[in-house]
Design goal:
CATH superfamily of the largest domain: Vaccinia Virus protein VP39
Order of helices and strands: EHEHEHEEHEHHEEEHHHH
Number of helices: 10
Strand content: 15-25%
């Protein structure tokens, strides 16, 4: 293992994965092929990057830390020195494969951002805080089910792959981690107008998850709309499936276009 003099920076949420067994386990889960176009978010010191480059010819990275970016470039690794939260992933070729040990302090907003590019990627594999992964894959009417669950489940098939102990990182985080796979679902693309309404509905619903739908979505849906949607207005937001929320967004978007 290469020695490192880089001090992890708290403002970037840096926890460098150093356990060779876990690194190999990630590569085994991703199964990169020679001609794959792989994008790694947050390569850090390049431990995973180097293993990916042993399997595929084309790996590009996104790194916000300029010191780490400079070190990676010294190894002829392609680096986009940028904030992953603001990066436009549509510039990569269709079918790109995105991987990364995501900074835990921005993981949820980053997942929402990446969801916008679901139809342009082949798959995504991320190391995240275990609790976040459990929210991602949560079923309706469970404590973990929420806005993140719905926003991702309408776009991806997701699978929690394995958990990782804190000792696999430098410095060790205060939480357990987990690896998750996201594969875009065919036909799940939302038109821009639908996506805007969908996001608005989720924000309203899950900011008032203890209220009934008729109260949480009072500004969006009237009594007659629930009949048209065949949804019980007395349910709580957490009881609705992702398909229900997608139906509501498309219904409201259609009403807007019909005006």
């Amino acid at each position: 293992m290469r020695s490192s003099s880089h001090r992890p920076r708290k403002r970037f949420g840096q926890h460098f994965l150093h356990d060779p067994r876990i690194l190999e386990k990630i590569v085994s889960a991703v199964q990169p092929q020679e001609n794959d176009f792989v994008v790694e978010i947050g390569p850090g010191e390049g431990a995973l990057t180097r293993r990916l480059l042993e399997k595929t010819r084309h790996v590009e990275t996104i790194e916000i830390d300029r010191d780490l970016a400079a070190r990676l470039r010294q190894e002829n690794i392609k680096v986009h020195e940028a904030d992953a939260l603001e990066f436009d992933y549509s510039g990569f070729p269709p079918g790109a494969r995105i991987v990364g040990n995501l900074p835990y302090n921005i993981s949820t907003p980053l997942l929402f951002h990446l969801a916008r590019f679901a139809q342009r990627v082949r798959d995504m594999h991320f190391m995240l805080q275990r609790e976040v992964v459990e929210r991602m894959v949560a079923a309706p009417s469970t404590a973990q089910y929420g806005r993140l669950s719905v926003a991702l489940q309408v776009r991806f098939r997701m699978q929690k792959l394995f958990t990782v102990a804190a000792g696999a990182f430098r410095p060790p985080p205060k939480v357990e981690s987990a690896m998750v796979r996201l594969v875009p679902m065919e036909g799940a693309a939302l038109r821009e107008a639908e996506a805007t309404v969908f996001d608005q509905i989720l924000r309203r619903a899950f900011s008032a998850r203890r209220k009934t739908l008729s109260n949480a979505l009072a500004l969006a849906l009237g009594p007659e709309d629930y009949g048209a949607l065949q949804i019980e207005r007395g349910l709580r937001p957490e009881a609705l499936s992702p398909a229900h929320y997608l139906r509501i967004a498309r219904y409201l978007s259609g009403k807007e276009e019909g005006r």
